[in-house]
Each structure stands twice: as C-alpha cells, then as structure tokens.
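Minutes, project check-in

Agenda point 3 was the complex the collaborators sent over. CS summarized: two entities, 404 residues total, and the question is how they sit relative to each other. Sequences were read into the notes so everyone works from the same version.
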Amino acid sequence: MKLFMNEGSPFARKARIFAREKGLSDRIQEVVTAVSPVDANSALARENPLIKIPVLVTDDGARLYDSGVICEYLDTLHERARAFPSSGPARFETLGQQALCDGALDAAILCRYELALRPVGLRWNEWIEGQRLKIGGALSVLETEAQSWPDEFEMAQIGAVCVLGYLDFRFPEWEWRRTHPQLAGWYRAASIRPSVVATAPA
Amino acid sequence: MKLFMNEGSPFARKARIFAREKGLSDRIQEVVTAVSPVDANSALARENPLIKIPVLVTDDGARLYDSGVICEYLDTLHERARAFPSSGPARFETLGQQALCDGALDAAILCRYELALRPVGLRWNEWIEGQRLKIGGALSVLETEAQSWPDEFEMAQIGAVCVLGYLDFRFPEWEWRRTHPQLAGWYRAASIRPSVVATAPA
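CS then shared the predicted structure for the full assembly.
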C-alpha cells in the first residue's frame, strides 16, 4: 500500500501512528507529498479530488480518504486488538472520540493557515479566537477523560497525541500544558511510544 | 432524540435527510440552533465542545457528532435497507463517498465564511480559488458517478444533494449545472423526493 503524507500533517500522522500500532507499517510505503490550500498539488489531485492528505492507495488500487476511513480500513487488516468496536455504545464512543480530535485539528489547521499562510494584512483575529474556542473545548474534554484512560492506545489516545503534538509543533506559545495538567502528564508518558517518536514532526 | 440543527447547515441537512429516508423523523425533535465561528453559541458549546451542528442527543443522553457519526448511529435504529454496509469493499466505498461530499462541503462552507462573514478588506482570493478547486474536483467525480447511480438513495446520493443544494443556496452564481449536465439531470429528479423537499433551505 502507499500512503500519501507529510511529516507536518497531523491527520496523516493519525494514519501513520495507527499503522505502527497495529503492526502494518511494513506493508505501507509512505510517500512524502507537499500540500497547500492555495497552491494545488496536481499530482495529489489525481489521487484525491479534495487535494488533501492522507490518501491510502490499497493493494487493490482503491484510493481511501480521509484519515478516519483509512484507519477503519487498516483496522480490518491486522490481528491485534480492534481499534473500532464493531457495534454498540463502544463503537459510537470511539467514533465520537475521533470526531472530537478531528474537530480540534481542523480548527488548529485553520489557525495555522490564518497565521502563517494568509498575507499579514488579511488576517482576522476574531476568526482565530473562534477556532481557539473549539480547540479549548476539545482540550477540556480530553483533560477530564485522560484521567481515566487505561494503558491502551487506541483512537482516543492516537487522536490526542496528534492534537497535542500539532499544538506543540505549530503553537508552542499557546502553552496548552499550563491549563491541562492531567493531559500534560498523560502526554509525557505517551510521547515515548515508538509509534509516536517515529512520527513526530521535525 | 434531539437534533441540534438549522436549515442553512448542509451537514445538519445530511442527518435530517437520513432520518426521513429511514423512517426515523418521528423520533427526532429538531432544535433550531444558531451557529457562527466568530460568535460562539454558549448553549451549543455545552452539547458539543466543537460548537458545531449537527449534534444528536440520543435517548440514552449521549451527544453524538459529527454528521457521519450521527448517520451511522441512526442506521442502527431502523429496519429499512442499511445505508452503511457492515464490511468489505462496499463499506469503504460508502465511507469514501461520504468523505468526498463532506470535503466538498467543508470547502464550500469556508468559501461562505470568507465571502459573507469575514470583513471585506480581509478577504483573500487565492483562498477562495483553492477551496473552489476542491469543490470542482468533487463535482467532477460526482458527475461521472451519477451516470451509474441506481434509484437507491443512500450516503452517496444524500451527500450529493447536500452539496448541490448548498451550492444553489449560497453560490447560485457559480452555475454548477453548466459544467455538470449528468449531475444536473440526476439532481432534478432527486429534488422532488419528500426528504429533500422537507429539508431544503428557505
């Protein structure tokens, strides 16, 4: 399989951590791919009409996106513990945890585009503040939930690593640890997992 | 159950059409909810930390989001044809069709915010053009796929109605029909379905 990705993309990281946690990384060739919302990568557009990463090309030649679809597909290929319960409340709890982290990442990426890509004179502070409220809301939920997280490392934990790692990478000045001590403690321990180390943005 | 929604939200519409198609609308109270990315609805923030709609409150009191999670949950509650195949290539085809339409809607909503919410002097044309490329890419795929769509009305078709209905609602000047004749013909027929009529933005 091929995974179009780059090291800075937190959604690509979700798929990359997932593959490593489930013992699938030997079967996946990672293809470093440049993306920008204002400078379309025409090669990537042939793989995904939304011109986004990650995209997984399966051994059957199917193109899968977004990151949630990729993780659920990869979850059918391994013999370890399933990350996505097949039914019932546990399934929807997992999907909800994923949606929470995806939403925080969407907001953080919009902040990144606003503050690093958009010309300085066109930036809008209310937009940033609105997106930061969403990130803060998600972090508050994670701060509570992390207190009861077991040692397992499934979608909730993978999602949290992607969110917190991205905040450290792009917005260290927001100092999320100051107001989220439980999460900071959990993240310190999670950060030494091989899958997390191997996928950390440079 | 309660569904936080408003008539202008295409993601809320996805859940609302789904509920009607599967005979579940009698069990769902729709709660009209104002949202703005720069003027947070604090009541909504208590239901969904991402401060977005749709949110479904189940009979057990769980809060479900986003629209894909809601549709998959509703799919467990009815006795009609399942919209989400339980496994195999058909499942990932369905999830991919949903991801395609969700991505087009994300891009269209960003265009809407840029052109209607952001102060005039802060708008960035390259951003709009970049998002329009994503929408165009998705429409090209739908134009091809619609030629072989059967009469069924499942995730691909619900997603397409939400995308095309939103373009008509917010961007009629883009005239998507001019370059997508197959899709225009399909949409003309789809537009008279009761679930589509009942959820059309005013």
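Noted in discussion: Chain A has a mean pLDDT of 97.
Follow-up: revisit at the next meeting once the mutant set is ready.
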